[in-house]
Known about the structure:
mainly alpha, rod-shaped
Amino acid sequence: MAFGDFNRINTNVQTLESRFSLDKINKELGVTQLRLSTGFRINRAEDDAAGFSISAKLSSRIAGLEQGLSNTGDAKSVLDIAESSLNSMLDILTTLKTKATQAANDTYGVDERQFIQDQMDSLVNELNALVTTTVYQGRSLLGGTYDATFQVGERTADTINVQLTSGGADAGFTASGLEIDALDVSSFASAQLAMVSIDSAIDYIAGAVNNLGIYQTQLSIREEILTQGINSNSSARSRIRDADFAKEQSEVLKLQILQQTAIASLAQANAAPQAVLGFISA
């Protein structure tokens, strides 16, 4: 600024430039303080248009991954219910096998065999009741036709199909479906036939538990993948969008000093035209 500008009263150029500098500093200080208050380096698209767009896409992906992780947990809960019931069925079948083996001994008379028959009939009824009560959200899990697809990711292709079916589709895992609904231990021969039928049912349930375990393993692996994906994408979004507090705090201190300097400069610029009065009073 030329010295002669101090002699011009109508337009104080020094004041205008000082005010412009102060306004700029105040704007930068406001942006920095906003970053400190929100924790974000990018609060509006104008802060970093490309970064804002990328972080928005990452946020969408993270939300999808988090929901996929939640869905996976729900799917595991469904399979845990089914597994618990199948394990209980195995316990019942094991007891039935014990009773049938007990009856397949000619040391027992008619009355004793009838006692064993009554116990086995009761166990079969318990097995059927277990199948009936194994439900999730109103859907039977062991009805023999359970077929569900779980969305375990943020892409349409990220699905796992689970099927819990039995040989007798309509009867499911009931005694009828397992062909143990007519067990008879009234004689040595019939007791041995009952043993064979129960062994077949045990083998089938064991196979169903094995398949269930495979599904559970798939879901557990998917949980790990989703968790890693969430962490990786969150880290990438943080590097783009989050504020560096150490850097922003240092910037605040710098701008506050410049603000005070600009205010002092503006005050001096406003006072400079007073020197013109010296010409008038002389």
